[in-house]
Amino acid sequence: MRWTLVASAIVSVALVSARDPGGRNTRAPPSPRARAHSGVPFDKWTRDGQRAKFKGSKTDKYIVNGTGIPYVDFDIGEAYAGEMSISQDLNGPDKFYFWFQPSPNPEAEKEIVIWLNGGPGCSSLEGFIQENGPFMWQYGTFRPVPNPWGWHHLANVVWVEQPINTGFSTGTVTAQNEEDVARQFMGFFKNFVDTFSMQGYKVYMTGESYAGMYCPYIANAMLREEDTDYFDVRGMLIYDPSIIEHRMTDVNLVPFVDYHRNLFPFNDSYTQEIHDIDEKCGFAAIRSKYLTYPPPGHLPSPLPGINPDANTSLPECGPHYLTNSVQEAITDMNPCFDVYQVATTCPLLWDVLGFPGSFDYLPKGASVYFDRQDVKKAINAPLNRTWASCGGPVFVDGDNSPPSSTTVLGNVIDRTGNVVIGHGALDFILLSNSTLMAIQNMTFGGKLGFQQPPTEPFYVPYHSNSDLGTLAGAGVFGTTHTERGLTYVVVSLSGHMVPQYAPSAAFRHLEFLLGRVDSLTSKKPFSTND
Hints:
Keywords: Carboxypeptidase, Glycoprotein, Hydrolase, Protease, Signal. By secondary structure, the chain is of the alpha/beta class. Helices cover 24% and strands 15% of the residues.
């Protein structure tokens, strides 16, 4: 989920106490639209009894009691979790922790979706509990609730904490680059497939943030094996991905601030200052030339703002100088500014994982959910391991791999013809235009970048979900474009973690990835409709 550098539609529901002396009316949730969808009922396919699809002698030690998870007062169904070796030595010391949620959906046979969070060093249990798992426990909410937008309603899903030293995953940190990460993961995944007898399953890589490095490198390594028993990669979906060098945030920041000027209400002098830096450092010029369709060529190296004689950045043009300046300025005005969702304001909500927004924060008396001993026991986690949302290190001395868009991502697109890159419009830590510039700098399908700009409307089917704990938006929800096996979609009102802020939109993205709908512009109902 996170970068360690530092909603669905936003729905205002005015629930006013009947004791309110002002006599204001309580507004009910909006009436359902035609062809409505309520999200997937939690027991849609299990009302006549749960069928354990993967129970067996090899899997018994990983069984999670779906009615025995602390604070979860409903049955989440068939589930498995625990540590698994990443090597041929099944008792080896290096292990990944995983949570596997089989799908009760009859269409999910012979498919497995892999979800990875980013960081590097951030736990995929973040995604599990606050994005696309079977239950959700969002910032500031009282208890976990069933997730009608959980991805297991569409496919079998496994959330994996990786590389070594992420979350509950234990062992010796040896990874120096993404090829090492891929080798670790493939060792784990082969053991996972053998344990759950999933040979020949279609594999879909998904993730967010630094998983923009993890997923393409892992998918490329899997494809290179030419082994469809274990590594039959059929597609990839990555959100707000790290696929280009970090300086691109500086390059694209000023137009982002201008566009969202009501969220960045700077005075005239500071506004002029950042515009002067944008011009002086050549950022405006590089956008004008290279954020075009089709692109004129590859981005220059080095990027503008570098003194070629000394091979150093000009002071105001250095990496993150502009980004840090803007973040400091807006934080003075909005102390709860969230780099992951720029519309966030105070108060700072508590987070059961201890990491709401941009902050490590846990109110007095609260505890981090996955670090509780009763939770660890219930989910087969190591009792002597301290769990943190983001930790590490997971590399010996940082990740020395080049960005995935300049190396392996194009090949994954060409080999699968089924890659989706999604981006939340309100993300600050990784900007949507930076992702577009990465696409315009990448060769796939025999051409450089998109030949046409994204202009088509991304549509989320209307639904009648009025449960105030799981509200999610519908209608035209952003912009999308598909060329030569790559689909790009920007998601309105969403921050960095798209399945968290826009769960119905992410549900539609997964339907598209799995081939359940033929386009993100389609107005067809969700495939899970009754």
